[in-house]
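Minutes, project check-in
Item: structure for the 482-residue chain
Input as provided by the requester:
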Amino acid sequence: MQNTDLRSYVKKHPDNKMAWYLLGKEYLAEGQEAKANYCFQQAGEIYEAFERSKAPAHIWMDYQDKLVEMSAHKAKKKRRRKMWLTLLMFLLLAGLPPTDAPGAARGATDALSSALDSEDELQDVKPEVKEKNGAEASSEKQSNVFTAAAFGGENDGGGALAAAWAGSGEGVQTTAVLGMQTSDAWAIWKRGMPVKYIMQTNSKGKLTAQSYDAKQCSCEPPEVSAKIKRMALAWTAKQESAAALSSAIVSYQKQHKTWPKSVTALAQPFPDNILGETSAEMSEMFPQLLAMHQSKAQAIAKGDAGKGESQASKSPTPKKASFADTVGGKPFFTKPLEIVIDKNSHRLALVSGSTILRMYEVGLGGERTPEGSYVITDKVVNPNGRSNGEFGSRGMQLSDTNYAIHGTNEPSSIGLDESLGCVRMGRDDVEELFALAPQGTPVRIGKNLLPALTSVPESKERYSHKLVPKQSNTAKTYHWLN
């Protein structure tokens, strides 16, 4: 953005010290040191605070764009809120203590607060109302919202934090950002991920932030409440169900060239058991996920063909927002599920984009296990007619070949190359994968694809719902290359 826009903004908002600081940075980049120094003097404490920070350069540019956008915004309350969100983002990403961290130095945050607060903006805040019994109560709706982000290596969760702040709506709201560990280019999703940040908006629209990472905030953070921990655990389980259901909807449409009408259409007896397990929660989230995919298909059709009407325009608008507890109001996992198998590390991962939902140790067949791309076709319960046969309690055939992902009655072979080419899994692992990965899930087999680690929940937290009936195939005897 050109500094002419910033000059215009500073003229209208001479008390905004952050704007002075950014204008000074623009002049300094152009070699106009005298003008830059004058701007830095006007910025005062902000200059001192942010010159010590390590915020990426592109963050400044994003903020400059927001300054111009906000200057033209008619709603003063929204303008003030967005300013707060962006400034808090800088404080956290720059490694400064959050506003309410124990022992935090408050000079910079107090300066920001005084620079932004003004009487005319505060007049737009909705007042509290009294209930009939005379007790004071907030007129705003309370909510708890969650998201997750990768932390580690070059990942600092900045994108999720920005989305959380930008997406905070009106009302009393608590937004928790859960932290995923990283390994190479992968983010590792787990049950019980730690809370990294909590942002809270009160009834007057004031936003505060708390880091729960001692290294990040240079403080001794408070304990995360038991309630938030329970809700976070339930939220992660829900997102896994949504990922399985969302991928099943896509698989159904590819197979039938039409959209499913309900979860039941996805959970029929073999061979139409796209989903292996279902839950009541899936029925609640189905309308929103279906509408999401239909809308996406409609957009693609318009972009490619420029004509025709997608079925998305005919689908009913969901009555219930199933993902109101998620930042952005949409499911966390937006990319279809995929299975990746690494022959070197003997690992099988269920992934969505660059996020690993599960990582299991598996048995393979060395060079007898083929490399390439496949899809899950037959999904079979007790492929040998019993749960303790050579193929175990679950089997997932790969592209109508003689290769499959299945259980085993030789658990000691897990991690070794003892099969004739198939992928062997432990019983708990294969049953969980069977429940999560719909029919039609892509499978990629190769070398050096995954890190050598495992990531599975404890037994009580395994993904498990109601098994779809009649998923055995009594009409066929499988001869997979076990």
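Outcome recorded: The radius of gyration is 27 Å.
No further action items on this chain.
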